[in-house]
Amino acid sequence: MMDDERTRLQLDIQRQYVEFLDDSNDSKVYTKKIEGMIRKKETRVIININDLRQRFPIRCNELLKNGFDELPMVMKALREVVATIDSEYAKENEEFFVGFEGSFGTKHVTPRSLTSTYLGNMVCVEGIVTKCSIIRPKVVRSVHYCPATKKTMERRYADLTNFDVFPSVNMYPTKDEDGNLLETEYGLSKYRDHQTLTIQEMPEKAPTGQLPRSVDVIVDNDLVDQCKPGDRVLVVGVHRCLPGKQNGFTNGVFKTILLANQITMMSKDANLDITRSDISECRKFSKTFNPFEVLARSLAPTIHGHEYIKKAVLCLLLGGVEKILPNGTRLRGDINVLLIGDPSVAKSQMLRYVSNVAPRVVMTTGRGSSGVGLTAAVTTDMETGDRRLEAGAMVLADRGIVCIDEFDKMSDADRTAIHEVMEQGRVTIAKAGIHARLNARTAVLAAANPVYGRYDEYKSPMDNIGLQDSLLSRFDLLFIVLDVAEPDLDRAISEHVLRIHRYRNPAEQDGEATPLFQKDQTLSTQDMEKEKLENTEPTSVYEKHNELLHGPAGRGRNRKDKILSMEFMKKYIHIAKCVKPKLTSEAAKIIADEYASLRSRNLEEDHMARTQPITARSLETMIRLATAHARARMSKDVTKEDALVAIELVQFAYFKRVLEKEKRKRKQRDEEDEEMDVEEESPADEGEERGENGDDSRRSKRSKKDASREDDPYDLPTEENETLAELKKKASGTSQSQDSMDVDAPEEGSISDERYGQFKTRLSVLFTNEREESLSVDKIFEFMGKPPQDFNRNEINGGLKRMEDDEKIFRAEGFIFLV
């Protein structure tokens, strides 16, 4: 009796769904959809759940609440409607499927909020695909033939992922009831495609400090191969638990999965709430004087200085124009920037600001990232043993930005893995029988420290950077950021930092913890916000001035410029990226001339050195920067002005002055000291010098200093030095010998500290030139006694003795060995 009542109830529910789908006498929306499905030879129809909510609200609530029981009746109703339209097509296909779209309300969740309360419900989960298994066939019906009895039998299979039947025994028959062997007729058997996906919550929506959550999704039939790792999707399906058995027992912890019935691809570009008034404000701002400078000044206003770096980051956010030529060649439009410099120069803060402004950013660090973690990896499923393709950070950030901090801490092998991504914009995998290409069209913003921890200005930029040329050439701009000690600059920075620390958010309350994560969530698979956006207030263009954030306003010439609001900057950059500027012939000529000039520039004349190699990629860099500047003006053409700004950025980033320890300055100081000695040691002042003990001590110290400077092996004699020495001898007469007596003469085998340092340097040069680990004592005495060294025997013996005491050398049988 209860079964009859249940059957009658199911037929009543099925009749309601048939009435909903068969709207030939009404709007004919779903009738046309079903006819289109038949015409395209498909088996799935997409139903808008909002339409079902309007006509049958009870059925809509039951479908969301108990989707596992309702879906079989919807599919039977669809098959009945298809049979009335085309009976032949209904006979050809055993199953027809439905997918749902629309607003799911509280059932629109993320992998983190998908809890046990949603088991059995139909939910919509948004996330990013991180893993994809190989598509495998799953047997639905097997046909077997018995040669002994000449009979044929078939068996159907069902598991917990099937809706309309109970799970069956999964044992594959090999014998019939009488023990006769069976042969499988593979041509008559039926299979369906089966694939497993892993959906992870969005990186920008994951709470800070917590691991991202994920959920497994099972897709069958026509839904397989609809997405790949790195795609952002909305998956509509039934939340179901699968009990697992171990040794015949089942524990109380079940694995939960999502049985998908519809997969919707989310846009690669983030959807901002842009209204008509916002577009008009952006166009109005683009017509103002030099909008590029205003945008760059408004970028990271809490960071003092770094004007050129802010301009480069703005170009990175705007990007160039990507082109794919007819022969398949891809010219990337993404701009890559590398910041190298001393600690505490706001490199990481710049990366953090970009992660807040850009719509899609993946943050990572060099120490915590590997090559496969940045690109893609092939993993093995622990349950099924299948190979899976797992997306890395750069694949997840497709059409976005990857920020890599501590870039120098990565190993060379891991840095080599991103070469293809930075230029070609894709990841090619050929491992474990899997050959795949994943899109990774992303811009890279990296920060690193020099090789020595701090930048050495007396070494070339290449020695300080310590990265391969093949990697450096893929960065469009490389900035060297130095911590320069200047009193005025230090005072300005200190005032700026102190103002920032005094600032407090007006909305912050005492005793209330600052929320770590705030994000609006879309509760629909469709764009339901268009009508609502028309009534929203326009976004404010400029920020309200705050003395703690922006400094004192000032008056007249000292008046501070206005700062754009972050919300307006996001919308302006989003709209500007839609512009596709074209390169004019005038701008192309300027860029070509500058490229030829950069290649032929003589850097030795002005003591400049290149920060990175200048290759043909440098030419594309100037084109991309000029295009980004044109986008900032919302111009359809790249003009001469855009090309000049790009050239200015390139010249600032490509060259760095290398300081030298100039010898001429030291010689001038020696000459000045000698001239002072000539005046002080004149006969007129001789009596006064001898009359005061203090003057004698100062004179003796100066004599020691002069003696050491005269014997400096790096100070080669010049004509001026020789002339001054002769004048000194003539003017001083016998005073030199008397002064030398005042100086404490070195004892047997002793050497002064300054001369000892010179001695070690010259001895190291001798061993390096001879390319030997041991030299005879006679050869060392001969070399050290020659000009310009002029070390006497006492100094040589003293130097060798001190080096032997310091365990730098070892003396044995007339030879000196380096330790």
From TrEMBL:
Region (Disordered): 663-756
Major localisation: nucleus
EC identifiers of the protein: 3.6.4.12
GO biological process, one term: DNA strand elongation involved in DNA replication
Cross-referenced Gene3D superfamilies: 2.20.28.10, mini-chromosome maintenance (MCM) complex, chain A, domain 1 (3.30.1640.10), Nucleic acid-binding proteins (2.40.50.140), P-loop containing nucleotide triphosphate hydrolases (3.40.50.300)
Reactions that this protein is recorded to catalyse: ATP + H2O = ADP + phosphate + H(+)
Pfam families, alphabetized: MCM, MCM_lid, MCM_N, MCM_OB, WHD_MCM3_C
Positions of the MCM C-terminal AAA(+) ATPase domain: 291-497
Oligomeric form and interacting partners: Component of the MCM2-7 complex.
Any one GO MF annotation of this record: single-stranded DNA binding
Places the protein is found: Nucleus
Gene Ontology cellular component list: MCM complex; nucleus
Biased composition (Acidic residues): 671-689, 712-723, 741-751
Function in brief: Acts as component of the MCM2-7 complex (MCM complex) which is the replicative helicase essential for 'once per cell cycle' DNA replication initiation and elongation in eukaryotic cells. The active ATPase sites in the MCM2-7 ring are formed through the interaction surfaces of two neighboring subunits such that a critical structure of a conserved arginine finger motif is provided in trans relative to the ATP-binding site of the Walker A box of the adjacent subunit. The six ATPase active sites, however, are likely to contribute differentially to the complex helicase activity.
Catalytic EC class: hydrolase
Family membership: Belongs to the MCM family.
Keywords: ATP-binding, DNA replication, DNA-binding, Helicase, Hydrolase, Nucleotide-binding, Nucleus
Annotated protein name in UniProt: DNA replication licensing factor MCM3
